[in-house]
Every structure is written in C-alpha cells, then in structure tokens.
C-alpha cells in the first residue's frame, strides 16, 4: 500500500508539471498496487495487470461501489495507451485531451485508493 501511495503522489506531480501520460500511467499503477495490497492481505495471489480483473476479485470479498468498474475500465485503457502508444496510433490523445484524461484518472484513482485504504485499516 505504501508504494500505491507513492505512485499516487507521482501521478499528482506528473499532472502538475504537464506530464499527462505519466500521470495516467502512475494513476493506473497506484490503483493496481492498492488492489494488490488488499488482495494479498486476504491471502489471494491474483496475477493480472488489469485493474478490472483485480477489482472483480476484490468485489468477491467486499462490497465495492459500482462506479469503480467504470474507473477501472478507463484506467486500464490509459495503461494500454500510454504503455504501448503504438497499439492504436491514431488514438493517441492530443495535449488537451491528455490533460483532461490525467485529471480524470487521478480523481478516479484517489476514490478507489481512499476506499481500499479504509478497508485495509478496518
């Protein structure tokens, strides 16, 4: 969970300095690590880079807000787009879109991480 928190701070810093693709990627990584932290704390060993897959595993153990499914899909798409920018070359976002995407990624990541943080502390 500590690394998830650090990645979230990296996402915030990247957004602040205009490195929008890194903000999106770091937001994905932060959520991925938070979900993995929860699953590991439950004794589960789920291996996937997909937040959507991990979130489904989490939801088998606790009630997860429905809105997180949409956030997971978005973060997964950012992960793919910014990790593999040649996957869909014509889909690479413009600077304006990337800034909006980074803000949305960060807001969604914060909601999920805050939720997981609260569950782990209980």
Structure description:
With about 120 residues, the protein is an all-alpha fold. It has a single domain (about 1-120), classed as Four Helix Bundle (Hemerythrin (Met), subunit A). The protein has helices at about 1-15, 20-40, 50-60, 65-85, 95-120. The model has no long low-confidence stretch (mean pLDDT about 90).
Total domain units: 1
The helicity comes to over 70%
Low-pLDDT runs: none
Distance between the termini: 14 Å
Overall average pLDDT: 89
Number of strands: 0
**Number of helices, where a helix is a run of at least 4 consecutive DSSP H or I residues:** 5
Topology diagram in text:
Elements: H1 2-16, H2 20-41, H3 51-59, H4 67-83, H5 95-121
Short description:
This protein has 122 residues and is mainly α. 74% of the residues lie in helices and 0% in strands.
Features of this protein?
122 residues; mainly alpha; Four Helix Bundle (Hemerythrin (Met), subunit A); 5 helices; 74% helix; globular
């Amino acid at each position: 969970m500590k690394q998830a928190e650090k990645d979230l701070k990296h996402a915030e810093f990247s957004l602040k300095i205009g490195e929008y693709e890194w903000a999106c990627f770091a937001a994905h990584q932060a959520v991925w690590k938070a979900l993995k932290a929860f699953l590991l704390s439950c004794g589960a060993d789920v291996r996937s880079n997909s937040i959507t897959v991990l979130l489904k595993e989490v939801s088998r153990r606790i009630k997860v807000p429905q809105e997180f499914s949409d956030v997971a899909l978005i973060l997964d798409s950012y992960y793919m787009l910014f990790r593999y920018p040649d996957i869909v070359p014509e889909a690479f976002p413009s600077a304006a879109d990337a800034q909006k995407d980074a803000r949305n990624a960060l807001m969604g990541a914060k909601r999920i991480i805050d939720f997981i943080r609260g569950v782990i502390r209980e």
